[in-house]
Amino acid sequence: MIFRATVLSAAILMGVAGTPAHAKDTVKIAFIGPLSGGNSATGVGGRNSAETAVRVRNEKGDSKYNYELVALDDECKPNVGVQVATRAATDRHIIAGITHFCSAVAIATVDVYHRFGFPVVVWGAILPDITYAQDYKEVHRVNGSMLDETEVATNSLIEMGYKKWVVIHDTTDYGNMLNKMFQEKAPKKGGEIVGSFGVGANQQDFSAELLKIKDINPDVVLFAGLTPLGVRVRSQMEHFGVDVQFAAVSGIMSTSYFDALGQTAEGTLSFHNAAPLTAMPGGKAFLENYGKANYSNPPEPYGPYAYVAADLIMSAIEQVGPDRKKVQAILNDTKDYPSIAGPINFDDHRNNSVASTRYVAQDGDWVRWEDSEYASGKRQLKGR
Amino acid sequence: MGSLVEFVFYGAVLGIMYALIAVGFTLFFGVLDVINFAHGDVLTVGAFSGLVAYLGLGVLGVDLPLVLQLVTVVLAACVMTAAAGVLIGKVFVVPMRDAPAFNILLMTLMIGTVFREAIRLFYPQGANPKAFPALISKAAVDVGGVFIRLDSIALLVLGLAVVFLTSWLINHTKFGLAIRAVAQDADTAQVMGIPFKRTVFATFALGSILAGIAGIMHGIYYSEINFNSGLFLGLIGFSAAVVGGLGSIWGAIIGGFTFAALQTVWVVLFPDASSYRDVFSFAVIIVIMALFPTGIIAERYSEKV
Fold first, then answer.
1. Do domains A26-144+277-353 and A147-272+358-371 have the same CATH topology?
2. How far is residue B80's CA from residue B66's CA, in Å, rounded to a whole number?
3. In CATH, which superfamily holds the domain spanning A147-272+358-371?
4. Which of A13, A326, A341, B65 has its CA 20 to 30 A from that of A305?
5. Which residues on chain B are in Cβ contact (under 8 Å) with A241?
């Protein structure tokens, strides 16, 4: 009995002696994105990337706090997004958020973040209104916006000789704004939009629109929407014999585009604010760190920006501690922050601009145009 | 001119799919005076059963010619949807047949939700759209500037064949006679020796099989299925059945083609407003229903209280 007590006390004393003088406090940050539904590939890639950022920082060991990522699913639906945004914003233990890929959700939640003083950094939504419509100091964005993407898209298409466009866009804020921007930009560069079709985000049948487009016979069909809808449009273009080059905005740039279409995806043009990982300063290291966790999904093009957003937030917390107002002040002043995607600079609306990249679908992968066999002439796009 | 033919043709393919669903609704209503709102989701069950059968063939390494693959997939869909239909009839609708019709409608609506959400939750990545195999050759035919795909022709022919077969079954077989007898007067039919429950279950099975076939057609036509497919299709099918006259098979077929025609006409006339085509179509359906409350082909026998 006494022997046992002695051994027990000795063990406890050793345990206590072995513990550091104070354990690190755990600080929580939230990740919000579409973890289920048709855009889950991008959402899960973003979540994994943010987790990688947290893991890398924790493993380095020299930070003041231990970070924990709380992942929430907005299902790419505005009503669900507002619910989970409220959940994160009202939890005192969550200091900041890495938020949203779907623009329709992001624009709905900015009011929630502002009301609760919850600083967020957008990682994937590109609707300009998210940062520019209101002067909400809580909302920041690292991944550029539609302004960058539509600029590069318009210039590229005109330069490649596609002057007569038909635009198919979804009728959410995302699709409508993209359509509006293309309508403004194309004529300025010598292009002409000869037809524009707004379609519901859940629309199944495009026979009527596509047969009309066959009549119109444009140079290119430009799609402004997300992957599930884009897959249907592209696949039905084949079905109805619309033999026209297909180009689309970044909403379709994910691996699920290839999973659903197979060979039909070949030759699709797209534009994305994220450069390929090989072109990013920290791209190689990011990919290595990402790979260490053996995720079953790739990071997808926006993954690096989710990483950057997480990194930015954690750096701010390191400087001023887990205090929402102080973290927000640090984030507001971000200038020349060295991230894996290059230097991050927030303008007066806390938006980081980027130079978008042109991509083409080649052999089941999104390849930067300049690196592709289409640019070198080995393969041909339609209508060139 | 060529494109007008294409519009008509593809409108017809849509119409036959809506018609198959509408005929199912009409059968359920005809035989038991019940609106089965799980019908659209049974379509989704059929589509996914077909997909699973196709994937199963692949997993088992069985290499069949395309036609036999199609037959296997359709059979799998028919079996599963018949089972679903009988389940709904046997466990829920028939025991509750004396309850207010509204309650039964609500219940089938809930059953449909259960089917839909079960697919979303239990099928791997169920929330994402799934690629459906091309079980009919996608070769295209160019007839004087008109571009038609063989699989669309095949689907239209298949759909029409199924509709005619169902009509023949109802009107020229003993089974069909039993269905019509029960539809007209269930008590007298029983007195005449017609097995009531068996006939009702068989009708549920038949209606659901039609949904299963429509689901497979839908999958082949769009090369894609998703857990939500049946919801809106069920709504369209129901509206088509009501407009055509609940209880009349030809009414359901007319209703289905009417709806497809309305959608197509709107987009041809107003391509820039194509996203409003369902608003227009349903608005016209409402007007038709206001003008012909019992449907275009009115019920021939009224209920004698």
1. yes
2. 21
3. Response regulator (3.40.50.2300)
4. A326
5. 140, 147, 149
